[in-house]
Amino acid sequence: MGKHLSQNFYVVVADDDPLYRRLWEKILSQLPNCQYKICANADEAEEALNKEMTTLLVCDVVMPGKNGFDLANESCKKYPWLQVVLTTGYEAKLSHFNLNDPKFHILYKPYRSTEDIVKWLNHLLAQEDPTLDAAEDSFSENDDFPAVMEWKL
Question: Who contacts 4 (Cβ-Cβ below 8 Å, separation ≥6)?
């Protein structure tokens, strides 16, 4: 994890639920060298992505207006280095969406442990394998897209 301690990161979060926006603020404030913008919708997130060199996009799948899949797909085309975490309270049926070679993480709501999420994000931001110290029952590959990791943290 030493790599990320000396590097600055910028994270954009898009979630229409004020409770989860506050929770993400609490989580991200615990990450060293991390600046962030918490957004209520995809439009705000796109604006933030255009303003800052963003390392990670965290977005809710179901939001009014543009959904999280569309936001993630468009953002990854524009910013190929961008890492993406999609959050949802629903089972992710990825085959229902027009996804081209998806490479992202799905984090299921409700969250179990903000402490585990902080550790997990530290690994993601440092471009380390986030499964190394994660509990075996906390992650799995998506059935339709094995490059997509699903998380229950």
Answer: 32, 33, 122, 125, 126
Sheet containing strand 149-151, strands side by side: 34-39, 9-14, 56-60, 83-88, 105-108, 149-151, 139-141
Tens of pLDDT, residue by residue over 83-118, are: 999 999 987 666 555 555 557 899 999 999 999 999
| Structural domains in the chain plus CATH codes | 2-151 (3.40.50.2300)
Residue 64 Ramachandran class (φ > 0 left, ψ -120 to 50 alpha, else beta): beta
**Helix residue ranges, H only, 85-126:** 114-125
Name the residue type at position 45: A
To which residue do tokens 């085959």 refer? 95
Instruction: Give the span between the Cα atoms of 105 and 56, in whole angstroms.
Output: 11
| pTM for the full predicted model | 0.90
- Locate the DSSP E strands across the chain: 9-14, 34-39, 56-60, 83-88, 105-108, 139-141, 149-151
Query: pLDDT class for 7, splitting at 50, 70, 90?
Result: confident
What end-to-end distance do the CA atoms of the chain give, in Å?
A: 19
CA atoms within 13 A on the CB side of 32: 11
